[in-house]
Design a protein that fits this description.
Elements lengths: L5 E3 L14 E4 L4 H12 L4 E4 L13 H7 L5 E4 L13 H22 L3 E7 L7 E4 L3 E3 L6 H5 L15 E3 L12 H20 L2 E7 L1 E3 L12 H10 L5 E2 L6 E2 L1 E3 H14 L3 E7 L5 E2 H12 L5 E2 L16 H7 L7 H8 L7
Parallel strand pairs: 2-3, 2-4, 4-5, 5-9, 9-14, 10-13, 11-16
Antiparallel strand pairs: 1-3, 6-7, 6-8, 12-15
Helix pairs in contact: 1-7, 3-5, 6-8, 8-10
Length: 351
């Protein structure tokens, strides 16, 4: 297969930051990738895209020939290509591993051979599993996976693993041990481990951006691989009540895709030493129920319905500390939740 690339060279006449002249964005035609590509071009960078879904023809990150061709003349790789979401069932497992982990291995091998030493990786907050919690009696604890019987009985909050007492959710920082609880999460953590090994072996720079719940224009519509914001939006737009799982009190951090794109730009310019992970989040706590309510009110649609349903791959609370990204990259989210929801409620979505 021959890689089919689209290159856009800036016409603004501005010098590129940090001497970067050419960036390859894998998955650059996807939801987040397309915003990242646009932001990099706006920042003055020369950008190429490698993506399975380009209308001009696919280029697969798992194809060594396509990847080697795509890397010619490249200074930095921004690796967005991945299969996302919880999926349908375990029949998806081989495809997740193939696209996310084997694809990353092919890319990193080709980068090493080409002498490219700078990588920005799209990672995810799912690598943490459950968020951080504190027990009044035992301090910081990590609850285990929630039991099916407890979830079926409507007991959604994870108890203290030592005494069974109710826990208080806290912010997660990047040094919390990873604990992936879905196939997708396991593959994202594997991408980080592969990137860290590549950075050690090559002396390269790898910034892993752990995106939290990204939403915004261009999200895929209601599919098993969509984010919850798109699922709610599709329901409200069709005049249906969004179905909110559990009791709707799951804590999340919803970060606008424009902020995520900007985080990629600053990570490219930062060129961090070795491997380093960063939470890319808004710093604001929002429940899943609040997200559904905000969308339905903006669209004047029917109110959400709290169903009590659950998915085993879901975690109860996961909210991040954005402090490291602010201190080391100078990144802070700028789009407010209210502003972002007003835009997202009427923005075009992907088929």
């Amino acid at each position: 297969m021959t890689a089919r690339l689209v290159r856009s060279r800036t016409r603004r006449g501005r010098p590129t930051v940090g001497g970067v002249t050419h960036i390859l964005v894998t998955g650059g035609a996807g939801f987040i990738g397309s915003h990242v590509t646009a932001a990099l071009r706006e920042a003055g960078h020369d950008v190429s895209v490698l993506d399975l879904s380009r209308p001009e023809g696919p280029a697969d990150v798992r194809d060594p020939v396509a990847v080697a061709a795509a890397l010619r003349g490249v200074d930095v790789v921004v690796h967005q290509a991945a299969m996302v979401g919880l999926g349908v069932d375990l029949s998806d497992l081989p495809e997740y591993v193939s696209r996310n982990d084997f694809g990353t291995a092919v890319l990193l091998s080709a980068m090493a051979a080409a002498g490219i030493r700078r990588l920005v990786l799209a990672s995810s907050m799912v690598v943490y599993g459950e968020g951080a919690y504190g027990c009044p009696a035992h301090g910081p604890v990590r609850p285990g996976p929630r039991a099916v019987a407890e979830l079926a009985a409507g007991r959604f909050e994870p108890p203290c693993p030592v005494c069974g007492s109710p826990l208080v959710p806290d912010l997660v920082d990047e040094d919390v041990p990873a604990d992936p609880r879905s196939v997708y999460a396991a593959t994202k953590l594997a991408q980080e481990h592969l990137s860290a090994a590549w950075a050690r072996e090559t002396g390269g720079s790898a910034a892993a951006l752990r995106y939290h719940n990204v939403y915004g224009p261009g999200m895929p519509r209601d599919t098993p691989y969509s984010g919850v914001a798109a699922i709610f939006r599709s329901a409200a737009e069709a005049g249906r009540s969004p179905r909110v799982f559990e009791d709707g009190r799951q804590r999340r951090d919803f970060v606008h895709v424009a902020d995520v794109a900007r985080a990629n730009v600053v990570a490219v310019d930062a060129a961090v030493p070795g491997f380093r992970a960063y939470n890319i989040a808004s710093g604001r706590v929002t429940t899943v129920g609040e997200m559904a309510k905000a969308l339905t009110e903006t669209l004047a649609g029917p109110a959400p319905v709290v169903t009590g349903e659950f998915r085993l791959g879901d975690v109860r609370h996961i909210v991040a500390s954005p402090a490291r990204a602010a201190a080391e990259l100078g990144f802070r989210a700028e789009v407010s939740f209210d502003e972002g929801i007003r835009e997202f409620a009427r923005a075009p979505l992907r088929a």
